[in-house]
Amino acid sequence: MATYAIGDLQGCLRSLQALLAHIRYRDGTDRLWFTGDLVNRGPESLETLRFLRTLTDPVVVLGNHDLHLLGVACGARRVGTDDTLEAILTAPDRIELLDWLRQQPLLYHDTDQDIAMVHAGLPAQWTIAEARDLASELEGALQGPLPCQALEGIYGSQPDLWSPALLGADRLRFIANALTRIRYCDLEGRLDMRNKGPLGTQAPGLVPWFDVPGRRSRQTRIVFGHWSSLGRRVFGNVVCLDSGCLWGGTLTALRLEDSMFFSVPCDNCGA
Which residue(s) pair with 42 in the sheet? Predict the structure, then answer.
């Protein structure tokens, strides 16, 4: 049995199937973790969701594009010019697919191995236990009776600094931004949503979220996606798995038991 964490799919189903063949994945024996952004921009978002639902017990965390799909579906967001979500929104099984997506977590933590998976990252102020509890708050809002109300409130870049005193939409917005959008922060852990490029291109005073001094989740191994311009990189016990499949890069899997990488080219998934 092996466990493979896989980077952002964004509707690139054929690349995923090629990767699963490459690693000789055995459904029901091996286990798959997905770092989020399952859908959007790629050509097979509908087929990707349908395929994932056929797998045995996959671990999925939601990314910003997955939240965007849920928001569009309930009228909280507008369809963007580069979105490829129409097939999902008009599919005969859309309700089942969206309900399945809405039930997925925003953070997964394997306590036995002390490995966490999140789409984007964690703010420096949170321990893993706090991150799990705060992710559960947003999950509860998305899975509750008023998911559209929650989705309407999570967009925007403020507040940008965590405080336990945050309430309501401000609190859920910060949680969503931290877990699904974070890349750079200042040295106090304040989220910066403007800088998105590779290391070395950020504004002065900013560092990657995982390099903020005193980050309280440092002892836990963390795998994440979201940052395609960072690419497949290892920073101590932090691993980025978004190797830019959508942009003609590769789709990457990390076998957690021995930290071995596997990748396939994604020339069949142009944006």
Answer: none
Owner of token pair 């590769």: 250
Please name the residues in contact with 224: beta carbons below 8 A apart, sequence gap of 6 or more: 35, 117, 118, 119, 120, 121, 238, 239, 240, 241, 242
Inter-CA distances, 12 with 84, 94, 106, 193, 270, Å? 11, 19, 21, 26, 9
CATH topology for 3-265 is Purple Acid Phosphatase; chain A, domain 2 (3.60.21)
Backbone angles phi, psi at 252, to 5 degrees: -120, 140
> Does the predicted model carry a pTM greater than 0.85?
yes
DSSP state of 163: -
Burial zone of 57 (CB within 10 Å; 0-12 exposed, 13-18 middle, 19+ buried): exposed
> Structure tokens of 29?
């024996």
pLDDT by residue (tens digit) across 89-143?
999 999 999 999 999 999 999 999 999 999 999 999 999 999 999 999 999 999 9
Q: Tell me the sheet residues that pair with 108.
A: 117
